[in-house]
Amino acid sequence: MIGRIEARLRLLRRKLSRTHWLLRFLHLSTSEGPANRPGLVMVQIDGLSLEQFNHALNKGKLPFLKRLIKREQYQVHTQYSGLPSSTPAVQGEIFYGIKTVVPAFSFLDREKGEMVRMFEPATAQQVEHELREQLARDGGDALCTGGSSYSNVFGGGADQDEAHFCASSLGWGSALRAANPFALLFMLVANINSVIRILILLVVELLIAPVDVVRGLYNGHNYINELKFIPARVAICVLLRELCVIGGKMDIQRGLPIVHINFLGYDEQSHRRGPGSLFAHWTLKGIDNAVERLWREAAHAPRRHYEVWVYSDHGQSRTTSYFKQQGYTILKAVNAAYAGLDEGVPIAAGRKRAPSVEAQRARLLGGGKARHLIPVKTTGGDESNGKVQVAGLGPVAFAYFPKALEPAELAHAARALVTRHKVPAVVTGRGEEHVRVWTADGEFLLPQQSAELFGEDHPFIDVIGEDLERLCRHRHAGDLTLLGWRKGVAPITFADENGSHAGLTHEETRAFSLLPMDAPLPDSTRGYHRPCDLREAALQHLGRPTPATLPRRAQARRERSQAPHSEQVRVMTYNVHSCVGIDGKLAAERIARVIAQANPDVVALQELDAGRARTGGEDQAQRIAHYLEMQHHFHPHIHVENEKYGDAILTHLPMRIIKSGPLPGHLPGGKLEPRGAIWVAIDLHGTEVNIVNTHLGLTSRERVLQIEALLGDDWLGRLNADQPVILCGDFNCVPSSKGYKLMRSRFLDAQAELKEYRPVCTFYSRLPSFRIDHVFIQPGIQVTGITVPCSELAKVASDHLPLIADLTIPCPDAAFFDEQQGTDDTRDMTARSRVAS
């Protein structure tokens, strides 16, 4: 009843929603179909390394993401960015599955003979066109096909109307740009909270800006660049972020299959102030709040069942600029090496620093005013004397010579750069059989000697040599590749910045992904995944309406069941409300995901349909068991023609049915719903454990009759006292009721038996107020943990929360835990149950 009321209130709220009317007023299309279709919101936090992410979590800068980990069963994964560790390369791999799509953010386009940068629309469009053609030849599909893309380098397959603030399409998509002024005004009014937020944060940023300028001047930065950075920072850290949230929330309401949003604020601040700076971490609070708003919108989406995945493309490393270290630019150093000045000719100190990338991304907002407010060069090259060109943004630079050089000449120039000009490493061998790396310590080969160059402790030493070789052989790579870091050398950057990326340091290449625990990441023994693995997981999630993670859960169960001390068993009881959530959506997949995340051995389910028209005619017990890779027994309390309604027991352990049948009911004046029970025996490694699942009536008198029947000789009364029994289900009785007290006369309440644990209510799921779901155990069975999942998924999937009990069965044929192990396990399980509940 409560669930139906909430579902109707949700429907009414959708009809009155500002976003609902905004979509109609803007004439934006919606994706119609079953409400349980999978959807995905991917949030990229640009430039945030795993180290800085963990630091921000510990310092309270990311409170909502921390909550996802603690309460929503999200898990942090290590992600290797690949090379170059820059946004275009990572997004090319995620969107199109192609590694090292560009050699760097800035490079010489050898076909055009021009220096380009990836935030130039023409360059981004050309590269993306090549990616689409290659993917079409391979028969693949771009990740964002049918969805939308915000603040990315590439549209990722999204239609032109759905690519917003991307380098390949500046500003809003064409559909919103073509909207009439009244529609845009209505959009502002409908999002008045976001507008107020933008105005407040703009004022805060402008108040902070003078302090930031003074610090920049104190550290020797150019005052003109400091002043230009103020509007760029405000545009990126506040305005662009809020516009992306507004657009993303609309697309979630529209039901687009995938929405990909990139938040650039942290990366922008890190380039200027360093990855660990207070200003950089201050922007993470705003990003965390933006993710929370998107997540809550996704949790109440009417047209799809969305998941929200958060990840970073790469990290940043604290660096010193080459200009500051040497007193001249890297271009002057390469010119000297090319001209043979390493023979003793002095070099005049350069006065012009290499350009930085800041303010480029503010132009993503589009429009002539943004471009005039924050002017930037349209070409990406450094200063050039007409002989040598150098593309250097970050700790990787490319030297392009006006004529082809012999290998001996390239080696000569490389030795000059690493000895006289203090470049940490120079790579030669583009187009040759062997790739050689020159350092002050000598010559090395790739990928054979990667460990000697970058250290055996590098987290990705097994692949980084191959990736560097691929980068240096890219058709747009330089004749020489200059690296700002190697083992034993402090990292430097060839641009004017305090934080940099694109290189090979631990922090640059070690990104993260924050995904639900059952996200379908490919199994890997390496301990990390890379962008193409994240792409595969996203496509698998979108392409299948079933939880793609459950085989991994089944494997985890098998591993646990094969472990020593096999008397441990995890039992779950769960009233699934015919798989209809409190949002009104029919989704057996959600129920299966809730179960899979808990990883139980035995599952007792109540209120299941089979062949009923109201739930699409499917056998819900069979479907859930199929998802979980479990066997099941189903007992219908109601059986009218082909329609059934009842309870089931699922398990991966050997199981045999002992009895299933009706329970007596009391008829005070009208017919009550028939009730029943199902009794199975599971083989727990040689010990037979009796499991009974039931769903009792709504009135006190009928419950007492039903409990008396269960305790009588027709049911459990015929068992010997030494036979393990677990009786669970929805008893519809609270601890103060007669039925509960009658059960306690024979059995123990698992929740009440766990020391230092306060029993938790399971009904109603949104606001648990009643403890009517129980796991009763025979004396002698030990309770080592209780869990009541309270994630958003569990709260919405049914009107009950599941109850999970970790039990130790007194198996006479199995060795018990030693005392110390048992104490440690009890302590761990108790702590886990406190956190989960």
UniProtKB/TrEMBL annotation:
Instruction: Cite the residue spans of the region called Disordered.
Output: 541-566, 818-837
Q: Kindly state one GO CC term assigned in the UniProt record.
A: membrane
Instruction: Tell me if Nuclease is a UniProt keyword of this record.
Output: yes
Q: Which GO terms describe its biological process?
A: GPI anchor biosynthetic process
Gene Ontology molecular function, alphabetical = endonuclease activity; exonuclease activity
Name of this chain's protein: Endonuclease/exonuclease/phosphatase
Extract the InterPro entries matched here. Alkaline_phosphatase_core_sf, Endo/exonu/phosph_ase_sf, Endo/exonuclease/phosphatase, GPI-anchor_lipid_remodeler
Ranges for domain Endonuclease/exonuclease/phosphatase: 572-800
Record's superkingdom?
Bacteria
